[in-house]
Amino acid sequence: MKPDVASVPQHIAIIMDGNGRWAERRHRPRAFGHRAGQKAVRESVAFCLRHSIQVLSLFAFSSENWHRPEDEVGALMNLFIRALDREVDELDQQGVCIRFIGDLDAFSSPIRTRMQQAMQRTQAHQQLYLNIAVNYGGRWDMVQAARKIARLATDEQLDPASIDEARLAGLFCLADQPNPDLLIRTGGERRISNFMLWQLAYTELYFTDTLWPDMNEQAFEGALTDFQLRVRRFGQTTAQVTAGA
Ligand code: IPE
Ligand code: IPE
Ligand code: MG
User: In Å, what is the CA distance from 26 to each residue of 15, 20, 29, 177, 244?
Assistant: First the structure.
């Protein structure tokens, strides 16, 4: 069945959770699960391209994930390097514009260089905007926005009384893109874990027990179908929304 074009989300955000448990169930190290998760990343990109979804945001590493055991953090960093070396060519060919969001200064220079190169190389592409959140936290995003606005006020370029939602919204990560319409969290937890706290205000939330490495085309279709059954009211009544449709 072809989806109703009107209800295809413009922006899907995903908390890719469950890699560790996927590996533990197979009596393998957690890093094995992170590696297996790469296939689902490719599937998610292919899914968005197929459905002409404009923006895909993937939560790959939170600001809190540094607190994991050193060997797991190390394995994730090595995986980032390998993924950047292997995947960027294909994403470039697919017309995917890559952007990393988060506090990138914390990464080693081999990782930072690769991230910058990937962003530069794909910056003109428009088939899909792929945002990868690394060392990202919704609270960090708020703090960096607060810093920017405080600086403008101190430099007297901005009157604090003029700060409204629109002014503030323009300072968060991804201000130039629509807010997520659909958030998918895999791995069974029903929480946001400090993902895009500002941007998710009116996002439809979809939680699935499927572990991230098991996400495939059918599972993504399931999330989309569920989204298409939602009535997004944004504070209005259903009758108002239906009349306006
Ligand atoms: C998500 O999978 C990947 C990262 C947070 C880097 P997890 O590693 O959190 O997997 P579980 O939740 O322990 O199964
Ligand atoms: C959220 O998963 C972060 C990412 C998927 C990158 P976590 O596994 O870190 O979240 P918690 O700790 O269960 O909330
Ligand atoms: Mg987890």
Answer: 22, 10, 9, 39, 51
Per-position pLDDT tens, the chain of length 245: 344 445 899 999 999 999 999 999 999 999 999 999 999 999 999 999 999 999 999 999 999 999 999 999 999 999 999 999 999 999 999 999 999 999 999 999 999 999 999 999 999 999 999 999 999 999 999 999 999 999 999 999 999 999 999 999 999 999 999 999 999 999 999 999 999 999 999 999 999 999 999 999 999 999 999 999 999 999 999 999 999 86
The answer as to whether 173 is a domain residue is no
**209 lies in a domain?**
yes
Does 65 contact ligand 2 (Cβ within 6 A)? yes
Residue with CA nearest ligand 2 atom 12: 193
The verdict on pTM exceeding 0.90 is yes
Say whether 98 sits in a helix, a strand or coil. strand
Which residue numbers are catalytic? Answer: 17, 65
Domain of residue 26: give its range.
11-137+180-231
Residue 189 CA: nearest ligand 1 atom is 12
d(CA 117, CA 81): 12
DSSP, res 3: P
Query: Looking at the domain assignment, is residue 245 inside a domain?
Result: no
The total number of structural domains in the chain stands at 1
